[in-house]
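Input sequence (290 aa), recorded before submission:
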Amino acid sequence: MDLIGPAPSVPTPGIVPFAPAGNFVTQFGLKENPFADSVHPAFFFRTDSHANAFRNMTLAVDFRSSLGMVTGPSGTGKTLVSQLLLQHFEEPKHRVVLVLVTPGLSKTGLLREILSELNLALPAGIARVQDLVKLLSNHIIEMHQQGQRLVIIVDECHLLSSDCLHIIRTISNIETPQEKLSTCLLFGESRLADRLAHSSYASLSNRIYMRCELSPLTPAEVAQYVRFRLMTAGRLEELFTESALNALHEYSGGICRSVNKIAMLSLIEAADRRSPLIDETLVRDAAKRM
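Predicted structure, token format:
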């Protein structure tokens, strides 16, 4: 099917017809771009690794653990898992806040982010850390008395300073004689787990009852992942050949973000060449454009 536009009957030398961006979507019978660079829960493909992370983090909350942690290489789907958890825990039983860590975030900034997400009025002027901790602690206790548990999801935790990590430990210590009153779910790159293995973080690390490491996709999972995303976007017929799927795993290393990028570039390449299928050559050429 050719939806890029009719080719002139007599091509003009040196002139390449302009194809508007996005035409590959309709050309291949898709309703939307299946490999867009965005967090889209509908396109979440549950490998054993992802399902394990989601299950264990829900158990951390259900078992009223103070801390849970998901780590993995960049691009393996940590943020998507965190978004699914954000949707999973419902009020009034839970109050969920999401904190996205940015480089240079201070311990005061971290506390202010959490308090702001809870819609709490911040103290005027320059507040001391202990004042912010007390404000948060009092609110967590009030929530507990009302039968509500605070769940704090912290993404990009590998960027946290030592001071911020110890603030998280402090928050995890807010408790009654019977139980911890909040659960912090930490998401970060693999180096976060390596960092917390140091003796200086023992008091924090020992409180992490549930932890998971997301793994790159296997060759079989890459094939299933691509077919699932294409099907979700409306394409039921095969589009990538077996050799193309193998090449996609080879060039991406099984990293979801890289799979998406190479697959999308392959679709664009195929549309430009008016190819009905994506073969190994197209994937290889797309990978060179990374």
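Checked by second reader. The chain is about 45% helix and 10% strand.
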